[in-house]
Amino acid sequence: MLMIMSARPHLPMSIPVTLNSLGTSFLLLLVLFGLNVFSADICEPHVTLKDIKTYPSSLSSHIHKNYYRYLMMDKKSHSLYVGAMNKVIKLNLTNIADNNHREAILLANSTFLDRCIWQGKEKMPDCQNHVRLIAFNGSKLFVCGTGAYNPTTYQLDIHSLRQIGRSERGMGLCAFDPFDNSTAVLVKNRNQRNDLVSIYSGAFADFSKAQPQIYRPSVYAKNGTLLNKYLRSARSSSKWLNEPQFVASFDAGEQVLFFLRELAVEYSNCGKKIYSRVARVFAR
Hints:
Layout: E1 3-6, E2 15-16, H1 24-33, E3 36-39, H2 49-53, E4 70-74, E5 79-84, E6 87-92, E7 102-105, H3 110-118, E8 131-137, E9 140-145, E10 152-157, E11 168-169, E12 183-188, E13 197-204, E14 212-216, E15 219-220, E16 226-228, E17 231-232, E18 245-252, E19 255-263, E20 274-282
Parallel strand pairs: 3-4
Antiparallel strand pairs: 1-2, 1-20, 4-5, 5-6, 6-7, 8-9, 9-10, 10-11, 12-13, 13-14, 14-17, 15-16, 18-19, 19-20
């Protein structure tokens, strides 16, 4: 069973979920520019937003912004992975302006792009593929993009950024709307097999933003055998999540911590108040 403990006052501190089949510069980037920043060692090296904005991208445009929204630092390879609109970039941390960088182009499916426009969204920037999650999974990068309001996941080679296999649907793993805040973290060694990983996410699960959720998809063995069915927080319940904006998530041993802000239901009769919360998910 998945358990969530929340810092929300005046509400039960332990509620069972129903089983319904980042140095300092990085922290400043997160606060000031809304970037998701993660690192195994955030004390060094030092990277500034100006460095990232001025790197020599082959697809840089003077017309459209690149929407750098996600940073992942790998100190072992001295690399910085940047999630942007329609691409993932691998930069050399020793010299961000080094021309010897790599890019993976991840465009939204044309069918979903056309449907996104038909549903009233702008082609630029709404109906593009904004990368909102990059996570290390062995020799691969697990990437999730908004996919023109159709969240899509990819597996990329960690060195070459070459795509491995086909892209897949990523509903609930990252945001539909590129300007929504979502979070996810890969968690190892919490399942029936130590060689497997699970992803725990906080995001809206639908186009209309009516279903915010904390979610863990089903876990399968390498041979395709289902080991654990998917788990999610209660559906459409303001007592669980009330118009949340997810900030970050972290693997903390037996728990996964979700940091978010939301409208406080305990003060609904006194006007709107936004509270910061920490939700602890028992990942067993």
